[in-house]
Amino acid sequence: AQAxxxxxxxxxxxxxxxxxxxxxxxxxxxFEDDDSVVFNAGNMFINLLKISAAAELVEPAVVGSAKAGxxxxxxxxxxxVDATCTRLHEQDIELLNGPVDRPWGVRTASFKDSxxxxxxxxxxxxxxP
Length: 129
Known about the structure:
The chain is an alpha/beta fold.
């Protein structure tokens, strides 16, 4: 079966993004050089890549700006959305929205990382037995 193995996120400030991901997600670093930091996110890897090194991956397409607007959301399931929001607040991370119970049966909250990517934390309101 096919599975997503790595997501590469282009970042303007690699050191700031590295610090953010270590502080907020506590993912272990599995590789690091001058242009990238790769985190083990459990079932996949997240590669933070300096935007200056991104063009060679997508040419002839153009690397987009962080100011172009939100085009997707990453979701991480957590044990307790409210407790996680409290921890984010303690780290001076501003929520975009939430915590809120969604009509599709999930409690969520969203925030932006240091590069402008949106992350949603979520927990099913009535998990299956």
